[in-house]
Structures are given as C-alpha cells and as structure tokens.
C-alpha cells in the first residue's frame, strides 16, 4: 500500500498505520479520528486530500488486496471474505468487480471513495 503513503500528513499516516494493522476489524470513524488526533470530518477531509481515498475506501482496498492473495492461494471467495473482515462474500465480489472494471470512476483501484 505504499502508493497511498507518499504524503506528508502525520494524521493520515497514523490512521493508515492503524488501518494497516487492523484492516479486518470494524474500525469506526470516531476511533480512527481519535488515532489521528482530529475530528471525524477533519479526518475524512485530510485523509482524502492525502491519499485520494476515504478511510473506509482505504480499508476496503486493503481487504480486497488481501482477499485476492488468499484466493490466489486456493481459498474460496467466501472464506477469503470472512478472513479479511467482510460479513459475507457479496461485498467482496462487488468490490472485486469494481476493481476490475475499466470505468473512469475506478481511479483508486476499488471504485470506493
């Protein structure tokens, strides 16, 4: 995920560190904002400016990348989805389809912002 780390925002880096270490866990925006030392709205704005993604979009991108790795090593879509924190495989399938879609809205790799 180094492609989204070439920025100078300390708050965004702290939040990315937390998301990186716990991407499969539910991470409420309030908890992420506290880790970044900013208000929730400020975090959303700073994070998007720094990375081009929302905190949720970043977390979903990590989950999809990890799920792709697991699937590539023989896991089923369902088991990979559960392993990376999705409650069912539908969201993983949807995000994978967006990631492989050649549309202009898919600039961040997941189609989620």
Instruction: Give average pLDDT, whole number.
Output: 88
Please tally the helical runs, counting DSSP H or I stretches of 4 or more residues: 6
> Oligomeric form of this entry?
single chain
Q: List low-pLDDT spans.
A: 104-109
Strand percent estimate: under 5%
Largest sheet: none
Helical fraction equals 55-70%
The beta-strand count equals 0
Derived from helix and strand composition plus strand pairing, the structural class reads mainly alpha
Quick one: overall form? elongated
Whole-angstrom Rg: 14 Å
Q: H/E series, N to C?
A: HHHHHH
Distance between the termini: 16 Å
Essential attributes:
61% helix, 6 helices, mainly alpha, 113 residues
List the topology elements.
Elements: H1 10-22, H2 29-36, H3 40-51, H4 55-72, H5 77-83, H6 89-99
Describe the structure in brief.
The protein is mostly helical and 113 residues long. It contains 6 helices and no strands.
What does this structure look like?
This protein has 113 residues and is an all-alpha fold. It has six helices and no strands. The longest helix has 18 residues. The chain is elongated. About 5% of the residues have low confidence.
């Amino acid at each position: 995920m180094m492609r989204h780390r070439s920025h100078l925002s300390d708050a965004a880096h702290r939040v990315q560190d937390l998301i990186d270490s716990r991407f499969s866990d539910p991470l409420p925006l309030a908890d992420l904002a506290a880790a970044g030392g900013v208000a929730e709205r400020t975090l959303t704005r700073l994070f998007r400016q720094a990375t081009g993604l929302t905190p949720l979009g970043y977390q979903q991108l990590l989950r999809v990348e990890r799920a792709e790795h697991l699937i590539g090593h023989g896991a089923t879509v369902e088991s990979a989805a559960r392993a990376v924190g999705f409650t069912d495989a539908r969201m993983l399938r949807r995000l994978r389809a967006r990631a492989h879609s050649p549309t202009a809205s898919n600039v961040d790799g997941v189609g989620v912002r």
